[in-house]
Amino acid sequence: MKILKVGDTQRAACDHCKAFVLVTFKLRTVPFSDGVGTVKNVLVGVCEHCDSVVVLPHQSTPVVKKQMDAQRKALESRVPAHMVDILNLASVELSGGTEFVPALIKFYIHSLSNNEISSREIPQYLDSELAKGRSQKRISIKGRLVAEEIDRLKDITSIRSTTDIIKAVVLKINDDVLVKKNIGMIKQLKNIVAATA
Amino acid sequence: MGFNEAKRKLIECLNTGYVLHEERNDVDVKNLLAIGVVSLEEAAYIIGRSRGDGYSVSPHHFDTEIDVHVLVTKFSVQAWYVKWYFLGPDSVFISFHQ
Span A145-157, mean pLDDT? Predict the structure, then answer.
């Protein structure tokens, strides 16, 4: 394996300068190209002319992977068993089958955190009878935006615990899909089911 | 440099770790080799199984003396798009994605 040290130099293509330039290897904090998170203190080649990061030596790959995995790991919450039943029933109601459950939760987290669905009632769900019960089942949600959106939803609702956010979201789904049978929402969700089937 | 020579040299770079990834002021999450989703060994295996029918080469926009190689190949039902150039002893990957 070729190992570069801080301060080493070599030639590389700089997209900003539109030329092959001299780069110096330095430790930098570099964002991911999809805008989700950064890699901290990673060795990269920096253009001597414009200071852009232009090259990543392969020796930096384990650092990139470790930090990326840590920032995008699955969110897991333990919830009362009936919450999983609600999600399964709602998914079946939407003709999606139980495999639609992760997408259903992520849709709500995304819409609530972006104020596309009002989150005003969300804290009230935690006072309801259905919010109670021993946490015996696990809900796991994976996605590059989920952690960020849950943090945003925590700020909006002043709910501090991730598990409480998940519980409240499940009860909101229950309210919309199974109790009130919100026609507009059900139609929107059925369209998503059709698009992802 | 034809396909066979480019393939041989690329596998040699992958086997010896003379590998860099081109970036544009961020870490390209689509480059699966750069983010560690694909290892050097896996990349060498994918390239090793490729044939020349999905290969093309063109001069680099910034320096016409440098050839940019593109390989589109199928491996394990996945299509792979690989784009790279050689710079001294290194292979510099522009893309390694599905």
Answer: 89
